[in-house]
Amino acid sequence: MTPLDLESRLLHRDGLMLILDKPAGVAVHAGPGGGDNLERHFEALRFGLPRPPALAHRLDRDTSGCLVLGRHPKALRKLGILFQDGRVKKTYWAAVLGGPAGDGGSVDAALAKRSDARRGWRMIVAEDGQKAVTEWRVLGRASLPGIGPIAFLELNPLTGRTHQIRVHCQLLGCPVLGDPVYGGKPQTPEGQALALHLHSRSITVPIQASKPPVTAVAPVPPHMRAALAACGWAGEAVSTADAPADAPVSPPATPAASPAPGA
């Protein structure tokens, strides 16, 4: 990933934070297996500040969409409190295998990390786990050749647990399409790989008390467009109602000079 590649994926930029459209298939930080990751390229996003930005939260390697970075330590502390207190609104889109019963609801199921020598680690529903709540609604249903029934879900996680949406969709009986861990049919009948159909569609951050919250919307990645279109999604040109009516939606960032830290 070149600096221009990374800059082209900026959805919002101000003196405190950046919001990046994370590509699917790239880890946000280095893992034990090595390989490329977004964090190693953050130097290209300094825009005149003395240090590169840092992650304010995480997305799974195969999840695409809105990722928030803090531009300096004070901003990171502020963002950390906002995420911890549940004041950041996150909206995900997913194509799931099958579909839930009903058109909307919520899942309240605590999650815990478990591991074994054969399968490695995964998250499971457990009474001794951390509280996890996800609101969901169905935006469309369809059937794909070779795959079968699917549904297009909008999901709002009220907590931020690892793999929360993926486990909660599995609990609903409709795992995320292309999920190799939680049963979302990672291959077609012909043996072709299916990428994870989970996308962080929008995020709303009340970064400054004196100003309206900032909302950024990430375009649907190419690998999800066919499934969502089959479920009735009409494309980006008419799908602009993702943000609250009173929240300004950020245009793509421009290379203009950034405000001073703390602005």
What does this structure look like?
By secondary structure, the protein is of the alpha+beta class. The chain has a single domain, classed as Pseudouridine synthase. 13% of the residues lie in helices and 30% in strands. The protein has four helices and twelve strands. The protein has helices at residues 3-8, 73-84, 164-171, 222-230, and strands at 10-13, 17-22, 54-55, 64-70, 89-97, 104-108, 111-116, 120-125, 133-144, 148-157, 198-205, 214-217. Strands 1, 2, 3, 4, 5, 6, 9, 10, 11 and 12 form a ten-stranded mixed sheet that branches. A hairpin with a 3-residue loop joins strand 7 (111-116) and strand 8 (120-125). The chain is globular, with a radius of gyration of 18 Å. The two termini are 30 Å apart. 37% of the residues are buried. The model is unreliable at 238-263 (pLDDT under 50).
Topology:
Elements: H1 3-8, E1 10-13, E2 17-22, E3 54-55, E4 64-70, H2 73-84, E5 89-97, E6 104-108, E7 111-116, E8 120-125, E9 133-144, E10 148-157, H3 164-171, E11 198-205, E12 214-217, H4 222-230
Quick rundown:
The protein is an alpha+beta fold. The protein has four helices and twelve strands, in the order H-E-E-E-E-H-E-E-E-E-E-E-H-E-E-H.
